[in-house]
Amino acid sequence: MSLIRGLCQTSAAAILVVLVLGSCDLFEPEQSGSEGIPCTSDDDCNSLMCHLERGMCLSHECVTDEECPSNHPYCLPFPQRTGWCSDCLADEDCPEDEPYCSLASNQCKGCLEPAHCAPPTPGCNRVDGVCVECSLDEHCTVHNQVCDNWGVGPTFECLAGCKDDGQCAYEQQYCIEETYCFDCLTDADCPDTHFCYWDGACRF
Asked: Cα dihedral sign for 21, 25, 27, 29?
């Protein structure tokens, strides 16, 4: 009988422990670094930032323009990246040398499209927001030249080459490997008494 009573007491104690431990989750304090938690520096906020004037961790850095530094003076409103300081909200916020506001990054740029540029730099490097020698093949006015505007690290310069036959001069009518303009591919492409040589040129 005492054995049964002992087992019952043990089971009751175990159940009580489980209930107590389970209820602890209901009263867990907020974790450090959560939104709205008091802070004195960004170190207290994990991936958030410490808004020193309010003394709390926030996922944004401003509510009004007055809270932004002079080099990023505008607080982005909803529905943009709310609560972050930026260079501009519209073109009129930008200086003369970078007169266009990119709404993708809210940064002032020298250009956003080729229409913002003029010769001798009619192209627009949209990433850096600067006018360049070319951003489209049509900006290259010399035959057998194309714009280096593709691949890794484009130079946005007009270089010798081609992307299709139409970019080759009449005498060099075939674009090979999207790189070189050749006179011919076979002897049939050459005038009478001429032959197509290995370098794509028609010769006697």
From this structure: positive
Give the Cα separation of 189 and 50 in Å (integer).
72
What is the identity of the amino acid at 29? P
From the number of C-beta atoms within 10 Å of its C-beta (0-12, 13-18, 19+), residue 124 rates as buried
Query: How many Å apart are CA 105 and CA 89, to the nearest integer?
Result: 10
- Which amino acid type is present at position 171? E
Q: Give the number of other CB atoms < 10 A from CB of residue 148.
A: 17
How long a stretch of residues is the chain? Answer: 204
> Could you tell me the CA-to-CA distances from 165 to 95, 148, 172, 181 in Å, in that order?
43, 17, 9, 8
**Hey, what amino acid is at 135?**
S
Structure confidence by residue, pLDDT tens digits, 18-43: 344 444 443 333 444 577 788 888 78
Please name which of 98, 119, 94, 93 lies closest in space to residue 109, comparing C-alpha atoms.
98
